[in-house]
User: Which sequence fits this backbone?
């Protein structure tokens, strides 16, 4: 794999760390600004919404900018947002910093996926995408626990300064290691928007929302589920999340390896298995060892869908993939927000802390249905290839 992928992975590591580390620092942030924990939780919600909105917005703004330069600008925006968060004199400014940093998230992974895929041979594209996303998964194993430790011992502001430093390192790596990849001639914003009308692209995005949403339906409420149902101590939640992160790393690498060989069969297996494991979590959550094993499996199966779904979008929007790739990253965060909301509804209705697992199983099962529909449509309607402006353009047969 080219060294350029390491630079992209470092940027992904920083972004993954800043996205999730705030969850472990909410009490410290709330205490300093004199706000309640639910109010401090807006730092999580605001970031997620910023990713959803920023992915298409920033990608559209960068349609006339070479991809390498756009990645550097996005990392600069990420650094600025984290520095603003670290120095924020008020909660409102802190929230603004979080939103500024989040605007870079979706576009970085979207454009980065296109760049990573372009660095390798066609049969290795999913593996290259997985290598970049390894930075995000490793952030959950190393970055988040380390950032939480720094924040609890040196102050939460120090954590965001360290993350900003990671952003500077990622920016330097991109500048020095990522080759120039000018945009294909003749591709404009209207071509990028046209790709979003492709039925297969929309189906892949819907699978992203529902499939990864299934994961977060359970993981969002992992703390009360493990402490109240499984009987773990509060201090054990950190290492349980590390186990989840380890599963994510393994699943991401396996997904990247096999997606280049049999993409759709891989989605059938992982989404089906994810639905089953999430349903079983309702029962294994009552036993410590079984619960820990299930958490690893959820992380592995959930993230095994990421490289194939991202590659699926790139393949189906091959003539103008950048915007579609970025919007698909926003779809992950949309799924997270949707599933967390649905999980909260069933808990509030009195069904208990394990009830979100059934929600997650239903979401993953729905994603499997869409995958079968997508595969069936593809077999029945093979793509038609035409030439436009010197480039091969894959059209959807009606």
Assistant:
């Amino acid at each position: 794999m080219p060294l350029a992928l390491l630079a992209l992975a470092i940027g992904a590591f920083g972004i993954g760390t800043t996205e999730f580390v705030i969850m472990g620092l909410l009490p410290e942030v709330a205490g300093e600004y004199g706000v309640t924990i639910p109010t401090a939780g807006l730092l999580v919600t605001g970031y997620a919404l910023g990713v959803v909105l920023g992915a298409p917005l920033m990608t559209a703004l960068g349609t006339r900018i070479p991809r390498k330069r756009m990645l550097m600008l996005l990392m600069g925006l990420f650094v600025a947002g984290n520095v603003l968060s670290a120095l924020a004199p008020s909660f409102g400014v802190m929230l603004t910093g979080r939103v500024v940093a989040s605007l870079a998230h979706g576009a970085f992974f979207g454009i980065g996926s296109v760049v990573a895929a372009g660095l390798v041979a066609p049969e290795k594209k999913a593996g290259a995408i997985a290598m970049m996303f390894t930075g995000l998964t490793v952030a959950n194993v190393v970055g988040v626990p380390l950032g939480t430790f720094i924040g609890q011992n040196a102050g939460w502001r120090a954590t965001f300064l360290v993350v900003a430093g990671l952003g500077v390192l990622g920016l330097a790596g991109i500048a020095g290691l990522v080759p120039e990849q000018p945009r294909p001639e003749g591709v404009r914003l209207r071509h990028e928007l046209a790709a979003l009308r492709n039925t297969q692209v929309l189906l892949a995005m819907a699978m992203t929302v529902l499939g990864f949403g299934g994961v977060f339906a359970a993981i969002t409420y992992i703390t009360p589920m493990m402490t109240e149902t499984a009987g773990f101590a509060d201090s054990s939640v950190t290492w349980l999340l590390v186990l989840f992160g380890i599963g994510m790393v393994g699943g991401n690498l396996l997904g990247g390896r096999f997606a280049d060989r049999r993409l759709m069969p891989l989605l059938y297996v992982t989404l089906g298995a994810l639905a089953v494991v999430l349903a079983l979590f309702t029962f294994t959550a009552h036993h410590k060892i079984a619960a820990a094993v299930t958490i690893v499996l959820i992380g592995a199966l959930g993230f095994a869908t990421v490289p194939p779904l991202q590659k699926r979008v790139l393949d189906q929007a091959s003539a103008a993939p950048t915007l579609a790739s970025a919007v698909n990253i926003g779809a992950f965060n949309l799924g997270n927000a949707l599933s967390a909301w649905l999980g909260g509804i069933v808990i509030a209705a009195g069904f208990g802390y394990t009830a979100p697992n059934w929600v997650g199983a239903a979401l993953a099962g729905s994603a499997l249905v869409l995958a079968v529909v997508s595969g069936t449509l593809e077999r029945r309607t093979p793509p038609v290839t035409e030439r436009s402006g010197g480039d091969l353009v894959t059209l959807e047969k009606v």
